[in-house]
Request: fold
Amino acid sequence: MPDSALPRPEIQFATIAQQGDTAELGIWAFLINETIFFGALIFTYFLYRNFYPHEFAVAAKDTVLWCGTLNFLILITSSLTMVLSINAAAQGERKAMILWLVITCALGFAFLLVKGYEYYLDFLHKSVPIVAYEIKPGEGNAGILFWAFYWVATGLHAIHLMAGIGLVLYMLLWRIRRGLITPAYYAPLEVVGIYWSFVDVVWLFLFPCIYLVGRS
Amino acid sequence: MYRWIPFWPDTAAVNAIAVNNIYIAELALSSLITLTVAFMLLTFSIRYRRGSTASRANLVQKTWHFEVGWTTATLGLFLILFVYGASMYIWLYNPPPADEEIYVVGKRWMWKAEHPGGQREIDALHVPIDKTIRLVLASEDVIHSFFVPAFRIKHDVVPGALETIWFKANKTGTFRLACTQFCGLQHATMAGEVVVMSGPDYARWLGDQGVRESFAEQGSELFRAHGCSGCHSENSTVHAPLLDGVYGTFVHMQDGSVRFADEAYLRDCIVNPRSFTVAGYPPVMPDYAGQLGEDELLKVIAYIKSIGSKRETGR
Amino acid sequence: MSVTTVERASADEPPETEPSYLTAENTISSWLLTRDHKRIALLFFASITFFFFVGGMAATLMRLNLATPEGLLQPSVYNRMFTMHGIIMVWFFLIPSIPTTFGNFFIPLMIGARDLAFPRVNLGSWYVFNLSGLVVLYSLVMGGADTGWTFYTPLSTSFANGYVFAAAMAVFINGFSSIMTSLNFVVTIHRLRAPGMTWMRLPLFVWGIYSVSVVMLTATPVLTMDTFLLAVERFVGTGLFDPAHGGDVLLWQHMFWFYSHPAVYIMILPAMGVISEIIPCYARRPIFGYAGMVIALMAIAILSFFVWAHHMFVAGISIYSAVFFSLMTFFVAVPSAIKVFNWTVSLHKGSISFDAPMLYALGFVLLFTVGGVTGLMLATLPVDVDVHGTYFVIAHFHYIMVGATVSAYFAALHYWWPKITGRYYPEGWARFSAILTYVGFNFTFFPQFILGYLGMARRSYTYPADWQSWNLLSSAGASILAVAYALPLLYLGWSLIWGRKAGPNPWRATGLEWAIASPPPEHNFERTPTVTLEPYSYDPEHGSFVTQEGRSHAR
Ligand code: HEA
Ligand code: HEA
Ligand code: CUA
Ligand SMILES: [Cu+2]
Reply:
């Protein structure tokens, strides 16, 4: 595809470069907002952790460590493949871009798969408040609070990841297929990449906070 | 004292006088400021209305010295108000040694008060004049707020915690008691009255309530019935702290922190023993959350407090 | 810079090249799927006007009930009325009011852009807003929630039996609309300013919207998380906020006020921006201390995050944090003081005319001052201990939210009406309702200060009989106020058809929005304007003014 085929900017922009810039500022502003959203959750989680250190530590030992760790690795890798894809887009290597993006997407699905299996294990272990719950020894009344946070946090994260997968698929099946992502203008892909990395970073925080703290 | 001011609420406690003073000071300052602003708006509006002949030459160009001027002036005024208010608040919210302690439990939609002698009343509170009264507030369900307008005192009554508040009435009579935190359907009628009586009248009133076990004695029974005495007594096999005299002391925790043993602390020990452990003891005390009602908890606490004072006077 | 003196109105008229945004295309889908910020502004205007009247109806019922000590409504109905009144007025009227309508319409025009940065997000915001509106209406129609707009736990989680879940979800969804709109403004103001439109040349309205967007963007997610946890708790009941299950009761309040205190400044900052546009225009002189006004706006925005616990002075927080939050509350009031003084002094040596927007603006300054100084009384700890939870607080915030912000909203509506519709409204009627608003307002809410200090608890359907006269006065005032708020609807509607045609710059103002036709053409600016001057270059001595593009106009 020739570099000169710049798409026309939308009506409110003077140049396509300005349009790309603006989109990136937009996603950063959105991520500030998201950071505060998850920040509030993690903050309350630690508040309760501080109230009930023993109960939370006991409950946290029942999380499935290997699932969390595996997912940690999956997401880290997917961030890398995402960056590789954007790099390929910048170089104009269309095949490589698509390949890396497909891998990213597959890793996203893999994460959900592992997470789903982990949820199933949690269910077997009777750690789903209301649906199937049993107070384990040492957890006391506060253990259920831990599990409430666990479900809210990982659930919200999973929803964000699904949105990320949706965006990647939109890139693959719409923008890229129509040749709208070119070395001259690949800002949309970058925006998706920034969002994707953010979702990874959230897991980077949640994983130690939920799985590791108190496990020694 | 404030009778001459129209629409002034009753002022019937030493706390209320302090609040009145600061309120009047602020009212005066606020009116002054508002009137100044209004006056300036009005004079400028008239003098510089369109078509008036007042000169418009030489508009102020450098505005910042004016701005710095009134910013520092307001900041200064604000700091004065803040210091005045904060010092008063610390005084108001730090209970002095009390002559009498009354326990008040808020429940949808009534106030239950229990005197140390075991006298109980509902939606009413009888107190003697010129005595420092300390109230210990607890809630059985949602957040309420204990408010006596004539005393200018208020405190939220929060479930899961004990709050204290004090006053010293200086006028006999009957005053309104209200709930000011929305607590559901009949919040508006969760009200009652505070009756301030002279000392002898109050003593007579206490006597008329029929002889009952004192509050602490009821607590002592509960202390035995719920098995507390099984551990917390001299001849128990469990290694548990003796509770004589803990009230009002500083207690060292296993994790190195120190907590002051007030009512809220004692309550925490009973319903939430797992969240902290007293230094030198095993964490074996069972959790009594849900087993003791809010008024029962208050009784047990009153008992623990009473054995403290007994020990002091006894030795 | 061109120094040619151009005749007013005649030479000014841009050539009629593009149809106006109103007439460009007129199918239903051209409105419902529009990406034009001006049309979206009007869509928002329709939605929030509707909610203003729903909230107003609830207020009317409440005042009717309080006219007698026994009350006319069932207690449960009254409780649901003030809850829904608070929720609807705050989230469905006042928070979106100025940003989504006048902000949407005028931010691009004032900075010389052809649209907001993300027009689709803007349209999406309107749909999300209406979705949340439907949910809140569902909650209202089914019987309403009975918790107060503050949803205090554990009442809201374990005890209330109204449609609390629906109401909380409405607030939750509404937050996304706030976030979408504010994100758009932040990015637009950063990236789409016309050449020469430097930060210190932005009209103060743009600064107002910018500061409010920053606050919305950073505060709203906390409320979103908070209501989400509330919904989880109400639905699943794990005990997060329930002390009986080891939860922390005050956590909800901290998180709620962490959002809702900044939210009260969300409601006032755009209004301050509006007033800063109107006062210079009708006083025909530059605003006093432009830089100070900008600094004050941003200072309020930032400090507003550190005062939340002043709503909890008697809730059982420690004495030391109470003292700290009291101090911070005094600090946040300092920039407001700067603004009040600067507005007042902006009249000095002006050439003032008292058109309807100016009357609303002058009312704003006075009512804001009264609301503000009573806010300071609340910030003073012992006084707050006394009047917290009484009608004193109700009076305080109605003075600011209704007396100030709603007045500013009406001021903006009149000021920009000719630009939006291309028509003049009947000036006499407009002045009349401005004055009527002022009178009715004070009758309604001043008695509530007295009731508050006498000790009347808020959220009560009944009260002791000796307070009836004050309550009656307040209810009577409320009916005057209702007329004053209904009138503009009538004469503004009338003006749409019969109003005199307005030229591009009816008030001889300096902003870029006045350089284009009224109503504006579909794509705003034919060519991007170049800005050469700061705003408000009015000269009262000679009656002349220079627009931001540098075109001077003689008397
Ligand atoms: C638009 C909304 C808005 C705004 C702008 C404000 C502004 C302020 N508010 Fe208000 N407030 C509310 C809306 C608002 N408030 C609401 C909705 C509630 C109750 C919520 C509920 O419980 O339901 C509330 C409650 C509330 C409380 C808690 C009361 C309680 O429940 O116990 C407090 C306490 O500190 C307070 C203080 C202040 C202060 C100090 C300001 C300041 O920012 C005001 C600053 C302005 C001025 C001070 C005026 C101008 C200054 C001068 C002219 C200078 C000179 C003055 C002097 C030297 C005195 N407010
Ligand atoms: C944010 C904006 C906002 C606005 C604009 C208003 C507007 C009004 N409010 Fe407000 N109010 C709140 C926010 C607001 N309120 C909040 C947050 C609370 C706390 C809730 C809680 O405690 O949880 C509250 C609580 C509250 C109470 C206390 C209830 C209680 O604690 O028991 C009262 C009582 O008088 C009251 C009255 C009014 C009145 C008379 C108006 C008037 O200004 C309204 C005027 C408008 C109209 C009347 C509609 C327009 C006209 C018509 C529809 C014409 C037809 C009508 C007639 C002919 C009558 N409000
Ligand atoms: Cu109890 Cu209101
Ligand atoms: Cu506040």
The interface with chain A takes residues 274-275, 287, 289 of chain B (CB under 8 Å). The pocket of dinuclear copper ion (ligand 3) is lined by residues B 106, 109, 144, 179, 181-183, 187, 190 (CB under 6 Å).
